[in-house]
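Quick one:
INPUT:
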């Protein structure tokens, strides 16, 4: 998968609030489909579909231990997205720093 394809899959997977919540839960440790479904009030097949999207995007891995199929987060795909966003973060921080300087100058001028 190319970097562009990876970014597309990652952002598409993260576009859904349920999948973001599942990822947040998996950041605390591995879980079964039943455990992941509990707070959402959605069916196990619906959670499984969300997990498949996350897995295709490389955001999670799924294991098999007898009847239990634990899911766990795989942060490598998130690293690709974070690396892509880094220049934009730097840009926004610089703009916010300039805004802070401007507001500070305004405050000083009023006093």
């Amino acid at each position: 998968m190319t970097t562009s394809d990876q970014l597309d899959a990652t952002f598409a997977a993260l576009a859904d609030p349920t999948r973001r919540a599942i990822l947040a839960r998996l950041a605390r440790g591995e879980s079964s489909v039943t455990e992941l479904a509990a707070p959402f009030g959605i069916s196990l097949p619906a959670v499984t579909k969300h997990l498949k999207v996350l897995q295709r995007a490389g955001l999670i891995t799924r294991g098999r231990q007898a009847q239990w199929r634990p899911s766990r987060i795989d942060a490598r795909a998130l690293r690709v997205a974070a690396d892509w966003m880094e220049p934009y973060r730097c840009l926004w921080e610089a703009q916010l720093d300039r805004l802070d300087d401007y507001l500070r100058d305004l405050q000083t001028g009023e006093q």
